[in-house]
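for the writeup, i need someone to sanity check this before i put it in the appendix. the sequnce is what the collaborator sent (i think, or maybe the updated version? ugh). structure was predicted straight from it, no edits. if anything looks off just tell me and ill rerun, i have time this weekend
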Amino acid sequence: MIMKIENERDMIRLVKEDKWMMDILHHVQTLQLPDWWVCAGFVRSKVWDALHGFTLRTPLPDVDVIYFDNLNLDEANEKQLEQRLKQLDTSIPWSVKNEARMHVANNIPPYSSSVDAISKFPETATALGLSLDEQGEVVLAAPCGIKDVLGLNVRPTPYFKQTDERTKMYEERIRKKNWVRTWYRINIIPVHQA
């Protein structure tokens, strides 16, 4: 049965009803990282699965955990955090990144926060993150909005429309991901129409 998801409240309810997703959020919360989020495909795929009526979860190549700590920029720390998460659940393909250092890897100006980094993800439908507040409530970050993920539209974020180089990176990513093969109802919007 295809679920009706119309707003942020519906998205959060969908997550709260998913024990697997909530377990992941609680695992990450135990690390007590500053400005942490579980993001990208973790959120998008859940919404698209629900909007397609899938009863089985579409497998994720990884579960992206980001945080922002400009006091510890050592990449080795990220690997240690991944190991700590693997000790909590070995079945999850954890990927941990400190967005305070990722601008160096991406050769761009520094991000100001994790949500700033999310806003610069390639697609608006993927520019999403989930976290837990101090009371344990689910929080959604959607710096590019939720209209596209709910409308099953794939378009570049404003950041990825700024230069020809980023536009080419976006188009190559869309080609490689081939999301239409899995989520047959999505609409890939060409860059020149986005």
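The chain is about 40% helix and 15% strand. Residues 8-145 form a domain with the Beta Polymerase; domain 2 fold (CATH 3.30.460).
thx in advance!!
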